[in-house]
Design brief:
heterodimer, A: mainly beta, 4-stranded antiparallel sheet, B: mainly beta, 6-stranded mixed sheet, 11 strands, about 0% helix, globular
Amino acid sequence: GAGVSQSPSNKVTEKGKDVELRCDPISGHTALYWYRQSLGQGLEFLIYFQGNSAPDKSGLPSDRFSAERTGGSVSTLTIQRTQQEDSAVYLCASSSQRGPTQYFGPGTRLTVL
Amino acid sequence: DQQVKQNSPSLSVQEGRISILNCDYTNSMFDYFLWYKKYPAEGPTFLISISSIKDKNEDGRFTVFLNKSAKHLSLHIVPSQPGDSAVYFCAASALGNNDMRFGAGTRLTVKP
C-alpha cells in the first residue's frame, strides 16, 4: 500500500519568502506529525494532529510556522518570511489509532538562501 | 529539554561484530520505546520496539534491551552487516499518547 508522501522533495527559496510543504499520510491514519531535522541534529518535533482534536503546536519554533490538516488527511506546513536557519529537512509521519509506531515520509529538503 | 538522549553521535564496527547503540531517557512516564533507522535522503523507517512490560525484544539480528530502573535502552545488532550503516534514532512515548520524542541519532558505520 501507499506510504506517507511529501512534496516537494526539494525546495530552494529566498530569505523572506513564504513556503508551503505538503504531506499525504497513510490512508486511515488518524495521527499526523511534522518534524524537522537540521544539519547534524536529531528530529525536532514541530506539531501533532490527532483526529478532530486541537493540534499540539508546542514544538513550533516561532509564529512564522503554522500547519493545517484538512479533512483529517492531507496536511500543509507553512513557513512565512523564511530565514536561513529554517533550512532543514522537514519530515512528516503518520500513525494509526492502534499503536504509536510512526511511519515517515521521505521528507522535504528546504534550503533558504 | 531533551527527554531522550543518544550520547554517541557515531559508532564504527567491523562487519560480523556486534553493534551496540545506547539511549537514555528522563521522563518516567515513557512506557513504549522504538528504534528507527534512517538512510540518507530517506525518511526514518521503523526497526523494532519494546514496551515497558518487557526487558527484551528480539527480531532476527536486532535485539532491544530495556532497563527501566536506569531509564536506559540499547539496540544490539549481531552480526553487523555493511548494509546496517545508517543513522539510528531512539524514540519514546507514553502509551495512549502519540506524542513521541526522538533522540539525536547515532550514525553507525559497519566496515567490510
